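pls design
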């Protein structure tokens, strides 16, 4: 493929966000050098650090730069420092805001059990081996964006959150789910709570209506409570899952446990504007600045960025292969380390992966890869 020039907006955020983001950008830069591309990185304030510097979690200049970028890479947002602020002013509101302003209405989270990390899955090896799921989550509607009300005090206090979906909102995420399934094993599972919720009744009706348009794909429906159970006891039955904002948020975090850690999972938020890529873990303020955070989710997010936004499948596979080689050689950050692991810090793990990417052949003997 011919060389390309791309601009990536980097919003590292809070806590461990800057550490894992540096790991990802260093590898993207190495990829660009290896394959003859040119990536420009724009470092922008966002979340809690933007509140401290600019008085708001999503400054106008950050939003403008993201709109002009070809892709956005995010680290993490939030922390106890800002918990006393109102919901509308907290760092997390910046995340909701940027998704809305960029028109990002779908989130994609791949849940894959890496063979080299099979031992950290809580499931028995025969149940965890080969798990490869994509969770498609509606991102711009539902209860997170509905009306929130709170009234009364003490014993008479009441609060409510409104779940609203239109058929158009459901249709666009369901079509995306069918398209992802068509690229894989042609099996789509739609998850709802249609036995209780009116919004889920509409959800199931709209998704079912698209089945005739995609006859090559097998469509299943499952209630969310059963889906939560099945994801933990028999995850290999799933290929692509499509579900609502809140259900997707909860289920994808739970499914990450099958892989062994939230720190391993990347994600993409997709829609009208440039796509946003981020690991699904939080800002982990208790370990921030100690160089012990796991950068795998951020690195894998970088690989997703290459594949999904830039169409660089070969480069993405090279990065993922380098990551797997480092893991196969036994290197781990302390959160996923076992008795025979070689424990390294965040920056050293990134450096090892960068070395593996840079010298894929000459490092084989040094680290024992393929021996």
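designed seq:
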């Amino acid at each position: 493929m011919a060389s390309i020039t791309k601009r990536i907006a980097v919003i590292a955020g809070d806590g461990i966000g800057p550490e894992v983001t540096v790991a990802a950008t260093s590898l993207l830069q190495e990829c660009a050098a290896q394959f003859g591309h040119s990536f420009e990185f724009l470092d922008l304030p966002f979340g809690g650090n933007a509140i401290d510097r600019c008085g708001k979690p999503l400054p106008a200049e950050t939003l403008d730069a993201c709109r002009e970028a070809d892709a956005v890479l995010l680290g993490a947002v939030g922390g106890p420092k800002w918990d006393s602020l109102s919901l509308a002013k907290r760092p997390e509101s910046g995340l909701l805001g940027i998704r809305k302003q960029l028109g990002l209405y779908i989130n994609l989270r791949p849940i894959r059990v890496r063979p080299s990390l099979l031992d950290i899955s809580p499931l028995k090896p025969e149940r965890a081996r080969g798990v490869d799921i994509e969770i498609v989550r509606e991102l711009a509607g539902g209860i997170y964006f509905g009306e929130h009300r709170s009234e009364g005090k003490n014993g008479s206090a009441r609060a409510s959150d409104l779940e609203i979906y239109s058929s158009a909102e459901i249709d666009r995420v369901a079509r995306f789910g069918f398209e992802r399934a068509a690229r894989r094993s042609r099996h789509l599972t739609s998850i709802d709570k249609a036995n209780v919720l009116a919004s889920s009744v509409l959800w199931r009706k709209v998704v079912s209506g698209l089945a005739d348009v995609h006859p090559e794909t097998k469509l299943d429906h499952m209630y969310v409570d059963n889906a939560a159970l099945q994801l933990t006891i028999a995850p290999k039955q799933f290929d692509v899952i499509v579900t609502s904002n809140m259900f997707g948020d909860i289920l994808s975090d739970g499914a990450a446990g099958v892989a062994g850690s939230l720190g391993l999972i990347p994600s993409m938020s997709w829609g009208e504007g440039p796509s946003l890529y981020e690991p699904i873990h939080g800002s982990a303020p208790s370990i921030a600045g100690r160089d012990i955070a796991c950068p795998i989710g951020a690195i894998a997010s970088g690989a997703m960025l290459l594949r999904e936004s830039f169409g660089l499948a070969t480069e993405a596979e090279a990065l993922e292969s380098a990551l797997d080689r480092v893991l196969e050689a036994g290197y781990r950050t302390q959160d996923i380390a076992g008795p025979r692991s070689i424990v390294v810090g965040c920056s050293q793990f990134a450096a090892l992966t960068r070395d593996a990417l840079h010298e894929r052949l000459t490092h084989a003997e040094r680290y024992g890869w393929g021996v």
